Amino acid sequence: MLAEIITIGDEILIGQIVDTNSAWMAKQLNLIGVSVKQITSVSDDEQHILEALAQAEKRADIILITGGLGPTKDDITKKTLAKYFNMGFRNDAGALEMVRQIFEKYKRPLLDVNIQQADVPDGCEVIVNRNGTAPCMWFEQNDRIFVSMPGVPYEMMYLMDDEILPRITSRFKLPSIVHKTILTANIGESFLAKEIEEIEDSLPPHIKLAYLPKLGQVRLRLSAKGNDEAKLKAEVEVYAKQIIAKVNQFVVIDEDIALEKAILNIMKEKGLTLSTAESCTGGYIAHLITQHPGCSSVYWGGAVAYAYELKESILGVKESTLSTFGAVSEQTVTEMAEGAIKHFKTDYAIAVSGIAGPDGGTEDKPVGTVWIAISSKHKTVAKVFNFSNKRIQNIERSAASALTMLLNLLKEAV
Amino acid sequence: MLAEIITIGDEILIGQIVDTNSAWMAKQLNLIGVSVKQITSVSDDEQHILEALAQAEKRADIILITGGLGPTKDDITKKTLAKYFNMGFRNDAGALEMVRQIFEKYKRPLLDVNIQQADVPDGCEVIVNRNGTAPCMWFEQNDRIFVSMPGVPYEMMYLMDDEILPRITSRFKLPSIVHKTILTANIGESFLAKEIEEIEDSLPPHIKLAYLPKLGQVRLRLSAKGNDEAKLKAEVEVYAKQIIAKVNQFVVIDEDIALEKAILNIMKEKGLTLSTAESCTGGYIAHLITQHPGCSSVYWGGAVAYAYELKESILGVKESTLSTFGAVSEQTVTEMAEGAIKHFKTDYAIAVSGIAGPDGGTEDKPVGTVWIAISSKHKTVAKVFNFSNKRIQNIERSAASALTMLLNLLKEAV
């Protein structure tokens, strides 16, 4: 069973927004055994949308379309779908009722353009969107399913979770796809590949191995496809065990989770607590951690100490340290980490201070210079990094390095 | 001049990573006057890649390809390109030298697979990648340009900035594309459309208006295409002024920048400072702010007060307030905001406390209940929101609402 995802809208093609919808949809589809063959972004242009639909229809069984359903004139998806399927329009009573309810809830008058949002191609089935005014439309043609959804992420997510995925699952006998991911750190992709070369060469054709490198981590993903899910799982597990045995010292966890989530799991199991003291990462590490449900049993919080004043008042960094060595120094970052342990009363603390850029660099400390310290109650480890001259990248790489350093200190303490 | 972007790799199609590269590339291309016709993600499958290349070649002048250039066996882009262009392979001396230098810098032995990274289809021009071991390859065929780049974001970004974009600009006489964006808040998309309907109807065919809604904000984007950039700018400016005059009370700023950046600009101009006191948003607001270069002149930092203990110790929230009203309450969030003003000594402070979920809700305070307070030295405004049961979404919507509340308080103080 193959799916394709088509996103409609100039905003992706001019780079104004990142297409996060497609990745989310692809993940959900894979989980129910539907492979995604292609993801395509096209503009709000009738001819181009028609071509994309025709090509997707040739390749895939299910075509999921997002975007271009707003009430305004630049949104042409509905008209184009009607043309593609050679349909007229009807005003759908169920869709109109939902629009009415939403406007009533927000106590806003119903405009003509909003009533028109309930106009749909007359041969489609309307699936009610409980979170917005654009209806979801289900079409069938030549044994293919086409679903058009709004591009607003949470409207699309609810529709997928509550309606589309359950319908696909109950309608088709889907093959099983089993993924197993091993997260590694402290080793490069090519070294890893050399270490596990023999295991990779021994994989049967229905099991594939992929290397997914990102910021000092490499994810190894085994993917197996077949009909017997239990058998696939068992097979994949055998190869995963072989890989883990071979590169054990670099393995963080054998789950497809983020590094910070793996750390949270390890710390939770040991009953350890964590705080953060961030300067140049500006809350990004805290954000990475607090994305994860249940983090509060480990993570207590911390400081975003951007100004000197806050480094002193919240973390107790000495004014003399800042004036003698500067904010980006081993001494300051050490006092930040140890200050976090002392003031926030956690078992471990992460501290980061650096020059994220693009300005603020000096000859001694160019943009990209970042000091990171990790403290436990017994020990502080500090290290300097020299990243790039790109701000966002410096923030992300600092966070990844800090998390890896914390992981290593946790492993040492075993 | 039309471009297409093709990303190669299963990781996007199984939803393991979000394709941020394409949005970035599209933005840069648009800035130099190249329109992106389509963005396509295909799997590491030879036949599928060949088809995508052939289709892109029909539609576009420049085809930019990322991904699938790693040293490992799942990466087949180079082999497939050689097949597409009917070329053999050569080991490129310049590319090999760069690989050598990178391994020397990190003091790692050079493996056979790394030497093979310098193997390239023999008819391509190699563009040296200074930030990684995969070479960038430039092909020309039938008046079309194909460029293959690594998928690692910062390697691709350097190559685009330093090599690819300058080559495209110097080679072609490109049309001008002028965009002008107006950021609005506190008004829905359809109301905005109704307000400016007459202006929209009066636009000439070469100027388009798009509505880009996101988390309580709507961006209005005017796009004009033609040959005379100065004339286009002047034209767009006329329509932008008309729109701004019509919906002035909802206009945040007439630039394509994020809401938090607009706020930073407003506060910087007035010499105002800001701090944050975050519970359920867990550093996300701080992160949004500190993404922006130069934020330190306004933003001093703040607390991520996840645990009760840190709400008390850093922000001075009273224990009795927490025990009487709970952490998610008007009283607590008010004390958090006022505590931030007092302890961090800033002019304004944002405080957020809520139940992000998926657990932790009660009958009175279900998941998605979020209290937000904004304090100045003279005033505190607090408001409760009821968002969804999705954690990430609650974090993002809380941040957007908090920023809008801050904006409104700043406007009030004018």
UniProtKB/TrEMBL annotation, chains A, B:
Signal peptide: none annotated. Residues 4-171 form the MoaB/Mog domain. CDD domains: cinA (cd00885). It holds the Pfam family CinA_KH. InterPro entries: CinA, CinA-like_C, CinA_C, CinA_KH, Competence-induced_CinA, MoaB/Mog-like_dom_sf, MoaB/Mog_dom. Belongs to the CinA family. This is CinA-like protein.
